[in-house]
Amino acid sequence: MADLLLASQNPGKLEEMRLLATGLPFQVIGPREIGIHAAPEETGSSFLENARIKALAYARRSGRLTVADDSGLSVDALDGAPGLFSSRFGGEGASDSDRNALLLAKLDGIPAQKRGARFTSAVAVARGDAVLFEVEEHVLGEIAAAPRGRNGFGYDPLFFYPPFGTTFGETPRAEKDRVSHRGKAFARLRTFLEGLSRAG
Predict the structure, then answer these.
(1) Is 70 a catalytic residue?
(2) Which pLDDT tens digit goes with each residue over 136-147?
(3) Of 69, 70, 76, 156, which residue is the catalytic one?
(4) What sign results for the dihedral spanned by CA atoms 41, 28, 46, 159?
(5) pLDDT value, residue 200
(6) Confidence class of residue 5 from pLDDT cuts 50, 70 and 90?
(7) Into how many domains does the chain fold?
(8) What is the DSSP string of 23-64?
C-alpha cells in the first residue's frame, strides 16, 4: 500500500482524506507523522495556486505522492473577502465562532438579496516536481442572518444553500458532499486516484 501524504496539519482534514481514500490502495498520512512540521508560505493569488504550492513543497520534502487543498469563502458584498484569507479572517487564534461573528458584523444592515457568497475548493496532487492533477470546484449560496446548525465546520452554519433551504450547518454530511465545493472536488480527486492505482 503506497503512502499518500496530505499537505495539511489539520486533523479534521486528515480524517476527511482517510474517508475519501477508503477502499483505495493508499495509506493516508500527515506531515507530522514523517517529521515535517513547517508549512510552506501560501503566496499564491488564487486558491489553485496555493494548492499547487503546498502539494509541490510537501512532495519535494517527503518524496511521496502528495495531495493538497486550499478553500475559502468569497462574499459578494465584501468584494470577495475573506477569500484567500478565510482561515485567517479575524487574525491568529480566531475560532470558527469568532470568524462567523466578524463576518456577520461586516454584513450588518446588508439585505438578504445582496448577501451572495461562493465557496471554492482547489485540490492539487504532486509527485516530485510535477503536478499530476488539479481541480477547482464551487458552490453558490448566501450568508444567513445568524448561524444555524451544528454540522460541518468553519463557515458552514452561515452558508445558506437555497436549493436545500438550509445552511450547510443544518445539512447532513452525505447530502452536503453531493453539492459542496469540497465534496465535488474530492469526488474528482477520488476518480483520479482510482485511475492512478489501476495504472500501478
Answers:
(1) yes
(2) 999 999 999 999
(3) 70
(4) negative
(5) 64
(6) very high
(7) 1
(8) TSSEEEE-GGGGT--PPPP---SSHHHHHHHHHHHHHHHH-S
